[in-house]
Amino acid sequence: MSTAATRILLVDDQPLLRAGFRLILQAEPDLTVVGEAADGAAAVEATRTLLPDVVLMDIRMPGVDGIEATRRIIRDRAAAHDPRVLILTTFDLDEYVIEAVRAGASGFLLKDAPPEDLVAAIRIVADGDALIAPSVTRRLIDTYAARLPAVREEAPPPGLDHLTEREREVLGQVARGLSNAEIARELVVSETTIKTHVGNVLAKLGLRDRVQAVVYAYETGVIRPGGS
């Protein structure tokens, strides 16, 4: 029995980039591009009508930008349709990409990433996980952590007191951008055990995925900018 292909909406104000992405993705049998949009407003409308599984979202576009479009798409999602947003960033210019992640995006990818990384990222996000690239995550959040709310020292952040000591440790490792396999090696346990810990952390804190866990960890002081 064949599995339905992952439906993708391409959102970028540069037609050549959209064409390039389409060529790459159409070569994959498990991926299909169902539409394109050149700005955020069109992306929101296309998401409602085309019902993509993954929205490949640029940040800087005329009119409604990628941040606001992401916010609207996540706000509009229904139980029967839960699209995932994968942010495209040039990193050096997109200083507000963290806001898109906080708005509900499931990860971010550099625009100059190799084609195989683009394909892998879409599959990861479509499977319900989040794209956490250590080389990007740590630099990005460290750089823009000053935009996050100040951490209050007098009381533990809501939810942290529900975590076990090991779960807090795993949360810190997730915030560093480590994969389950890397955390397992660090803590000398099985990858299955780490997967269970991550699931417990997300459930106890009411977080959607690993990207939200990273932001939560920085917002609450579990890990500090520049910290290891």
TrEMBL record:
Q: Which domain of life is it from?
A: Bacteria
Record PTM 4-aspartylphosphate, positions in chain: D58
Quote the Pfam families the UniProt record gives: GerE (PF00196), Response_reg (PF00072)
Single GO molecular function: DNA binding
**Start and end of every HTH luxR-type domain?**
156-221
Q: Which organism is it from?
A: Actinocorallia herbida
Any GO BP annotation: phosphorelay signal transduction system
Which keywords belong to this entry?
DNA-binding, Phosphoprotein, Transcription, Transcription regulation
Q: Which residues form the Response regulatory domain?
A: 7-126
- Name of the molecule in the record: LuxR family two component transcriptional regulator
SMART domains, per the entry: HTH_LUXR, REC
